[in-house]
Specification:
Elements (H helix, E strand, L loop, with lengths): L3 H4 L14 H4 L5 H8 L16 H4 L27 E4 L11 H15 L4 E5 L2 H5 L8 H6 L3 E3 L1 H10 L27 H16 L22 H8 L7 H5 L2 H14 L1
Parallel strand pairs: 1-2, 2-3
Helix pairs in contact: 3-9, 9-12
Amino acid sequence: LGNSYTFFGQTVIHKGYTVLTQEERSNDQGFFYQLCKANGIDVSVTNWTFGSHNLTDFFAEGGCDAHRDCHGHRHQDYLEDGIFDFVCLQPWLEPKFEGDITAHVAPAMEFFRSRNPKVQFLLLIPHMAHEKSFVWLPQADKLKALGFKICDWGKLAYDLSEGNVAIPGGTIPLCRSSFVNSKDNHHENPLAGYITTLFVYCAITGQSAVGQPYTFCFDKELHKKFDLEAFRTGNYPDGETNFIEVFHSEADMLGLQKLVDAYL
């Protein structure tokens, strides 16, 4: 449940604003589904992500006011059963948001718990939250106290971009464009999408990120969105990025997986 910071890197596959029903948004086959499948886990993924949406937009009583193409729909009305084992929440929030993050996520928690009292929640934190020093970041600890698993994949991507940490055994120098596309200068690329996937998968299963498969990320037979060269062409006008080279470096991918374990 979130916005473009979840779908842009193919963790789930982007769907348009007019695709509203749970049936249409179920059976997502993005990176998260592919990683589960590669591990022999039968999972159904419902992709409830809409660009430029906050969590409150999904549960607004008077209808969505995200100023997109939702036309005032009440998104919660389209979650026909809403019964899930895990719900990943990726809030956007304005950089200067000063409210209580627990109140911000409360409508989502109430909705899903009313349908499955045993549902577990995860918080996804994107890299821009760190790059822009969002004031709500320290409040993530409040959600830990509520039982949330915190998947701060953005911290890892930010630290690698800034040189605050290096990939152990890595061979490729990393920079911002290794994780962020240069066309709009703020959305993640598929390498960041894979990092997001690892954080969520490992947080849920308790498995190590080390040794997890990733070749599905560039298997165009699985999905046309997994064409990394097409992503680079469409999102890096200058062509300057090395995320594909990282994907094809066993040493760098192994070191990246080790860092995911460390950050989790």
